[in-house]
Amino acid sequence: MTFRSLFGVDSTFRPGVLGVIALVVALAVTGMLIAQSEREELRIRRAELADQSGDKAHEIENAIRHGLAATYALAALVRQGHGVVPDFDAVATEMLRYYPGADSLQLAPGGVIRQIVPFAENARAMGHDLLADPARNKEAFLARDTGELTLAGPFPLMQGGIGAAGRLPVFLDDENGRPRFWGFATVLIRFPQILAKAQLPQLAKRGLHYELWRLHPDTGLRQIIAASSDVPLVDPVDRSIMMPNGAWTLSVAPIDGWTDKPGLVLKLLLGLIFSSLLGWLAKQMGELRLHRHRLQALVDERTTALAARESKLGALIGSLPDQLFVMDDAGRIVEVHSPDAALLPRDSADILGRSYDDVFPLPVADGIRTALMAIRGDARRREFEYALELPVGRRQFSASMSQLSGGDGRTAGFIALVRDVSERELAEEKMREATVVFDASSQGIMTADANGIITSVNPAFCSITGYSAADVIGNTPAMFKSGRHDEAFYENMWSTLEKVGRWEGEIWNRRKAGDIYPQWLTISAVRDEAGRLIKYVSIFSDMTRRKQREEVIWRQANFDVLTGLANRNLLNDRLDRALVHSHRTGKKAGLIFLDLDGFKWINDTLGHDVGDEMLIEVAARLKECVRHQDTVARLGGDEFTLVVDDIEDVDDLQIVGDKVLRIIREPFLLAGANRYVTGSLGITVFPDDGDDVQTLLRNADIAMYKSKQLGKNRCQFYSQDMQEAARVRVQLEAELRIAIERKEFVLFYQPIIDAERGRVSGAEALLRWRHPSRGIVAPDEFITIAEDTGLIVPIGEWVLNEALRQANAWRIRGLPPLRVAVNVSGVQFREQGLVEMITQASRTPGFDEITLVLEITESVLMQSSDVTEARMREIGLFGIEYSLDDFGTGYSSLSYLKRFPVGHVKIDRSFVSDCPDDRNDVLLVEAIINMAHSLGLKVTAEGVETERQRAFLRARSCDYLQGYLISEPLPAVDFERFVFRNGSPH
Predict the structure, then answer these.
(1) pLDDT tens, position by position, 494-526
(2) Handedness of CA 168, 169, 174, 179 (dihedral sign)
(3) Vertex 233, ends 227 and 234: CA angle to 5°?
């Protein structure tokens, strides 16, 4: 077989050879694509594992460094006591509470362990000389020589188990003032306890093997610290963990290997199938071309045979039902025949001898000319249609033209057979219109004969029901029955058809797949002219989507889109039903109102998508707290309600409330870390607290706010006195809004003095409300409401501007420069507009000569630390300092003090008030001062009220004092007199 190849030259190939070539090429291309795909998938997967292992490596490093940080505090105590730590056991035991990574604390003067806490499980290490032990003295000498913290281990402990030791050398000044090596402050951490915070087993749950290892500094061998399996990792992803004097490595690799074997097999199988199909198609194309070549030869042979029998057909021409035109090679009509002369364009005598151009109109002549040219080119028959306007009317004709061959094989002319197809065209047009409507209809159409046997269906029928035409033709519609309708339904249908000739209505039928669905069905009976029933025509539409839309609309109206819980609309309905049920049964019903504590911080700092994830998890947990017949609803934001009916005793609601509080306190794994919130619950009981839906909801809301006022993370039953408290709160909020408009606030200033010299160094600006009828109102009465309602933001802005204005006025009147401290609420610090407010305040006259200090609490540092740090440093660019207020009452993490730009800490008054009588408070205050000073921070003690407290704090080198012993908060004028009277440090 010869044909044009892909290279444009004539080539001879067998179809099989062509198929093999196509198969080989396709296999090669497919193999390259699969290899490229596998390399890309491996690159993506390794990048994903690198991110996951990096997070875990960071958590391990933080956990170990947090435990080692205790050495700095311990060293500060040694230096403070000049080599002696009074009551070491009590101090160390208390310190271990603040360093959960540390297992024990040790003091080793001269390198020999002399003091250990706890002692019982570490007694075997007592007296051990760290510098004399050749197996472990390498890190000890390194720490002593460099003066830096070193980490030794992991290694087997003398007291049992595996652990590592952080050793910080302590140097004391000798009589000449030169530093002298005293010994080591040591923290012992144990394995695997220190790694628990990193939750390494989560990697195995995600289908990953891991190894935590290091290169042993002495042997150079790989030392496994923790691993998920004894099986060596294959081509793992490594992340380094920097330790004080070395590096550990976290290696992670998939349990099932890097290659997705099922996926690779599937790709190879699909590639093989595709290549085989392409080869088969190439082979088929070759065979088809060979077949066409043979067929053309056969046609030519038959044409020659027909020409030889042309003379025999002449006798038959007269009996033809069609018109016949014979033309010579020049296109002149030499013979004509028509069964009806009225169908000829002219009289037959006038046609003979004329060219077709003279006989037929121009459009028809053009069609004949085109056909003749094509026939001359390939000698093949041509068919075309044309129309003529005749005396009998417009008629449509179909012509078939062929070439006549002479005995010598040359062209002898042309023959045309022409048929009047006017009636057929009309019928076909009507049939085409009906077929188009039948096929294009979006509604299913089915016809059946008089006996109910299906005779035809349209494509829409097949699309809707899943049945093909072959499946249903010859059967009865009974095959579609769903079982939802009884016999009476069908009897009524056929009875209506018999009487009226038409039935319309909703019916449920079954698809081929087995599922049932709703139809809107119209059946019409078709009768002939004699009135005999000849067929039925059924037209139907699928109502499934309409039903689904109705269902969606109902769900949107009654369910919360995010959590899937009942919304306020459905809650009102369910609660109303519960009340009706309780009326009937005489049992009580309970309504629990839940508001999440701390959710706004998570939503604002981690993003609304993380907040939505938490709300979905809360919804799932709440549904586990109640029975199936109870209702859990979301009112909006972070507010949820639970309707509990059929309760015998009110104590049952307390049990449910406690369960809700417990599951809300459990950690939420969000954004790769555990997040914590609590809940405040308000509970009302029907009929004790109200007999209608709105009353119960209002009272539950009041009880919930009472729960928040009492400290949150609790449930509170509604009582009558809460109504009055709620009214007072609403009134106070309204008065507070008016106070902001009328500027009814005033600032008092409490002096802060230098502890050593007793001179005024600064003041803390304290807010007071000058109420028109109640006089001066302390902030304790309104700050909480201001924070809950967001009014703290405009109030805080006024406080800042007023404090700066007053400080500039003092500067102009000759007061020495003072540090002015302004309290910033956590709510205010989270606001995006805080930086803009500071920017505006920086334009205050004299701002550059005022030392402004923002006092923040430890809770502010705990909130989204990355965002907080960035905001603090941005504000710090204005020359503003930070003081950590109420230090010791919160998390008190040294890592926060090291990380954030805090220059001062204020010891909370609760620790100062019992000094120096309470030994525990004495130790804590001393530790706070020593730790702060070791980090380069200044310390202010607030709440100083006695001379003994002043003397105690001065003896401990506290930098600044504040309290009623020095002065109560003063109006601006009185504070100015106080400064002039007591002087300043400048």
Answers:
(1) 888 888 888 998 899 999 888 888 988 999 988
(2) negative
(3) 170
